[in-house]
Amino acid sequence: MKTRLGYSSRREDLESPGVDPNPPILDPFADIPPTRSGDEYKRWDLSVVSTWTPPDLRTATSRLRSRSVAGVDFTWEDGESDTSRDFSPMGTGPFVRMPFFDERRTIGIFGELEEGIGESVTISGSLRYDTTPDEDDRLSPAGGLAIEIPGTSITLFGSYAEGYKRPSFYALGGPVGNMALRAEESRGWEVGARGNALDGRLRGQVGYFDLRVKDLIDFNPSPPRLENRQRLISQGVELEFAWQALDWIDFRGGLTFNATDFEGTSADPLNRPRWRGFGSVVVAPIESLEVTLRALVVGPSKASSFHTGGRVDTLSGYERVDLRVAWMACDGIDLFVEIENLSNTTPREAVGFESPGITPRAGVTFRL
To answer: Has residue 85 been placed in a domain?
Structure first.
């Protein structure tokens, strides 16, 4: 049995000049007014998980291998925003306080069963039950099947899952928030194959996926706020590979084609590129040092801006190179240096805003 306890806290102070497409007169019902806010979010997580693996059961024709997992988790969330907005026609004040506070208490009970049949077939199933005081209880089922092809290193697999995601506190009470938002509900399936060669040093996987999301939360520029949209249909193909060229050099890469649209329409969802790929090399010349060089390639995407009247533009694709150096100084202490966008490209991931150039950061991680 494993028990895990976690706590996280975040504080942000934000000041926004608002968005007024037709200055100097501000329309408080159609524009985004100037806003000042101090946001604070706290979260506690507690989980207890037990795993049971009974002895194999042998029959005259096959062998059964079982593994079960069961547990319960508790989540406490508290969000607070001391927000003030300026609704004056000229945007010169005064600011009107519009505070927001919410809390959530969620209890989840879950179980998973994995059953191996013979030497080549594995089936799995899971069920999760979530209960909260302020919303209907929910069941989230999932299942999977994996078949190893005899005489090869190839495994065919398939899976199905359902889930949900509640609106964030920001989506409910932020500057473009909407207290009437409903939770997103999803169901999806995937089929594919994976395999290896060269004694496992070369591994690869290809899969096709289909995901449907009901009540997707998206930004509506008129009026400027978040709203639930039609059902999102997301389909595509993923390809991944990994090659351990030497004991201290790994090559990894992947490519994803993901076509998305809203059910019953021909409109493409915004800010969702169809193509995305990456390649990386990980070098560990000594046990305590790891250097990662990663290249990211993103295809073009559709985007819109409230400031430009909701016009849909096409943003060009881009490439980016990142570098990360991690050193394990001693047991329990890791030091790292990261340089994002080593290539110093400045693509536009949103209309009118260039991404920052070279972005360095450094940090330390403590492990108990």
So the answer is: yes
| Cα 332 from chain centre | 28
Classify strands 63-86 and 100-117 as parallel, antiparallel or unpaired.
antiparallel
Q: How far is the C-alpha of 270 from the C-alpha of 93, rounded, in Å?
A: 34
Residue with tokens 């039609």: 230
Q: Does the structure show a pLDDT above 90 at 306? A: no
Higher pLDDT, 353 or 101: 101
Helix (H) or strand (E) holding 87: none
| Number of structural domains the chain divides into | 2
Residue at 225 is within a domain? no
Report the 10 Å Cβ neighbour count for 83. 21
Residue 175: CB partners within 8 Å, gap ≥ 6? Answer: 16, 32, 35, 37, 83, 85
Contact call for residues 69 and 51 (beta carbons, < 8 A): yes
> Last residue of a domain, which of 88, 108, 128?
108
φ and ψ at 293, to 5 degrees?
A: -115, 120
DSSP 304: E
CB 122, CB 137: distance < 8 Å? no
> Residue 56 belongs to what domain range?
1-108
The pLDDT value given to residue 28:
66
205 belongs to a structural domain: no
> Could you give the 3-state DSSP secondary structure of residue 169?
helix
The CA distance from 181 to 172, in Å, is 7
Q: Scanning the structure block, which residue is given the tokens 């080593």? A: 342
Q: Does residue 260 form part of some domain?
A: no
- Interval 154-183: pLDDT, tens: 999 999 999 999 999 888 887 788 889 999
pLDDT (average), residues 221-236: 86
* Final residue in a domain of this structure, among 108, 133, 148: 108
Residue 149, token pair as written in the block: 């092809």
What is the value of pTM for the model shown? 0.83
